[in-house]
Amino acid sequence: MRNLGNPHRATDGVPITRRDLITTAVSGAAALFAPAALGAEEESFKFGLTPVFLSNDLELLGHLRSYLSAMIGSQVELVTRRTYQEITALLVSGQIQSAWICGYPYVQFKADLDLVATPVWHGKPLYQSYLIASVGRNVDDWTGLKSDVHAFSDPDSNSGFLVTRALLAENRQLPGNFFSRSFFTYGHRNVIRAVASGLAQSGSVDGYVYEVMRETEPDLVKQTRIVRKSEWLGFPPIASPKSASNDRRVKALQQALISMEDDAEGRKVLALLRLDGFAATDPSLFDAIAAKVGTVRQFG
Amino acid sequence: MKLLRRFRSIPVSYRVPVFVALLMVVISAAISERVLNRLSRTQERFLDGLAETYLDGLSAAVVPAVLRADVWEVFDALDRSSASYKSLAPVETVVTGPDGRVLAASDPNRIATYSELPADYLNRYGPDVVTIDETRLTGFARRDLAYQGQPIGTIHATFDVSHLFAERREILVTLLITNGVLASLFALGGFVLVRQMIGPMRVLEDHMRSAAHGAAEPISPREIPAGDSEVAGLFRGYNALVHAERERANFAMQLAEEEKLSSLGRLASGMAHEINNPLGGLFNALDTLKTHGETPGVRDTSISLIERGLAGIRDVVEAALATYRPERSQRPMTAADLEDVHLLLKPELRRKRQRLDWSVVWNGAPELPIRGGPVRQAVLNLLLNASAVTPEDGTVSLKAMSAEDRLHIEIGDQGSGMPADIAGILIDQDPGPAVRAGRGLGLWMVRRVVDDLGGHASIALKRGGGTAVTLIIPFDSEDAKAHAA
Fold first, then answer.
1. Are B76 and A10 a contacting pair at CB < 8 A?
2. I need a labelling partner for B118 at 20 to 30 A (CA). Which of A83, A177, A251, B418 fits?
3. Residue A155 domain-assigned?
4. Complex ipTM, two decimals?
5. How confident is the model at residue A4 (pLDDT cuts 50, 70, 90)?
6. What is the pLDDT of residue A18?
7. Domain range spanning residue A98?
C-alpha cells in the first residue's frame, strides 16, 4: 500500500545506499560516544528523528539531546535515518523507545503506538501540506500541475505524499496518470530545492518546513510559489511503541516535551524549531489523516 | 640587397642597437612560442587530470542512483559536486540513463529531466580526455558508467576553460612586455656602449681632419681615457706623431732661415763688391774735383762720374730692399722684379766669371696678377743654385714668358745634373723625405713658393749638358679678374 505511486523506491533493488552508510556511521559514532549504552544498568533512551524537517541541523540535535538527557535522567541517543519507513520500522519493532514520526505512519500503526506529544505551531498542533511550483509558473490551482514532473518528499510522509495522493484520489486520479513523472527526494527541503532548480516542475511539501525555510533560506524559497495549501492537519507527532508504555522514561519524555518552554535549553530547541511548544493531544487529532488514508485505499 | 645596403649606410651607433633589438625580438618570439606551447600542454594535462578526478568522484557518487534511476539523488550529487570542484569550473553536467535519456542535469531548466540528450552532446567529443572548443572557451568530457560490466548510463561534463586561455593570454602579455622592455634596454645599452666605444675614434677623426687642413693639434690629456689602455695608446701615438711633425717643421723652418741668411750673406758680399767698385771711381772723381774742380770740363765729367756711380749703388740697394722686405712681396709682379734679380745676381756671376743668357718676353702689361715677392725669391734661389753648379766661365740662363693665364720661367745651368733625391724636393708629390734629410733647403723654399702660388715645377736635362728647371705659375684668378677689369 505504501509503495503505491512510488516507481523509484529507494530500498528496492539496491540494499544499501551511500546515505544509509553515512547515517549508520553517524549513529555508530554516536553510540561510541554514549558510554551508558554499553555495560550500563539501563540501556540508553533511543529517540528517533524522521527527516520531517531541518535535516542534519547538528546544533539542534546537540541542544535536543542535551535537553532530553537532562530531563529524562538517562543518556539519550538520537537515531536518524534517511527514510520515514526506516524510523517507523525501528519504532514499531520496539528497537527505539520513541520517535518523532509523521502523522501518516502514526495512523497506519496507531494500534501499536502511543501518542506522546504533538508540536504546537502558531498556537495549534496543526500544519498544512503545500503544493508548490516554480515562481514564474502561471497556474491557478492544482489541476494546472497536470503532466508535471512532480517531486514528492517521502512515500510515508503525510504532507509530502499522502495529502497530494489523496487529493488526486478524491478526483479519481493516480499520481502516475496525473503527473508525467514523479520522484521522491526523501526530504522536504529537497522538494523545495528540486522545484527551485527546475528538476521538478511541482512538488508536495510540508507547509511548516516551507514556512520555516522562508526565514532560514529565503533565496531558495523565493524561487518557488505555493499553488495549493491543504486543510489543517495534525502536526507530525512524537510517538512511542505500546511495548514501551511501562518505561518511565517515556513518561519523562512526555513531561520534558510538554514543559520544554519552561527550560532555557528547551527554549533554545523550540527557537531553532520555530515551534511554540509541545502538547498532549488526543489521537483523534489525526482522524483527518486517517480519512485520507481511507480515501486512498478506497480509490486504489 | 638594397635594404641591406641601406642598413649598412646607417651609422654603426644606431645599427648595433637596432640589430640587438631585432635579435632580442627573434629570441623572445622563439622563447615565447616554446613557453606557450609548454604551458598549453601542461594546462591540458592538468585539465585532463582534474576532469578525470571529477568524473571519477561523480561516477562513484551517481552509480547507485543511476542504477535506481533516482533523479533526485543524481541531481543532488551533481549539485554538491559543482561546489566541490571549483578549480575545474564545471559549467554543466548531464547524467543519462541506459536508454540515453537525461536523468538529471546540473541545470534542469536548460536540459530537463527525462528529456532526450541534445544531439550535439554526442558529437562533440574528440579522442582526448577533454576536448577543447576554443571558440566557445569550453571543454567537454564524458564518462560511461558501468555496473557489473553492464553499461548503465553516461556522464557528460562541460567545463569553462576560459581561465586557461586567460592565463595563456596573461603570460603572452607578460612575455611581450618583459621582452619588449628587455629589448629596449639592450638596444639602449648597445647604443650607449657603441657611442662610448666610438667616442674616442670620433675625437681622433676630428683631430685628423683638422690636421689635414693644416692645423694638427695634439689631443688634450683630458680627452685621453684613463681606463681604456688601447684608446689611450692610440691617442698618445697620435700625439707623438703631431709633436714629431711639429719638430720637423720647426727644424725645417730654422734650416730654411739659415739658408736664407747664408744666401743673404753671399748676396751681401756681392753687393758690397758692387758698391765697392764704383766707390774707387767716386773717390778718384772727388780727388779730380778737388784738384781740377775749377776746370769746367773736368768738373762736369767728374760730377757725371759721381752721379753714375751713385745711381749704380742706389739700384743695387733698391733691388735688395725689394727682395727682402716682406711688405713689398704682396704687390703684383712686374718686369722690374726680374730685372732686380738680374742685378742681385750680377756680383755672383762676375765673381765666377759666368755669363747670363737673359730672355724675358713680357706681354706688354705693366704688372701680372702674381705676387711678385715670392716669385723673385724663387727665381733668385734657382739662379743662385744654377750659378753654384755651373763651372767658372760657364753660362747660366733665364727665360721668362708670360702667356695668357700663366708665367713660364726656365732657369738653365751647365752643371752635372741634379741628384734624384734633390730633384724630388721640387717635383715629387711628397717632398718630405728629402727635406727631412736636411738637404736642398733652397729648393724646398722654391717648392713652397710654387705650391703656395698654385703652380708646379719640372726638371729636364738640356741638350748639350746641364739642367733646366721650369716653373709654371698660374695667374691668381681673383687678381686676374681685377687685372682684366
1. no
2. A177
3. yes
4. 0.77
5. very low
6. 41
7. 18-124+235-299
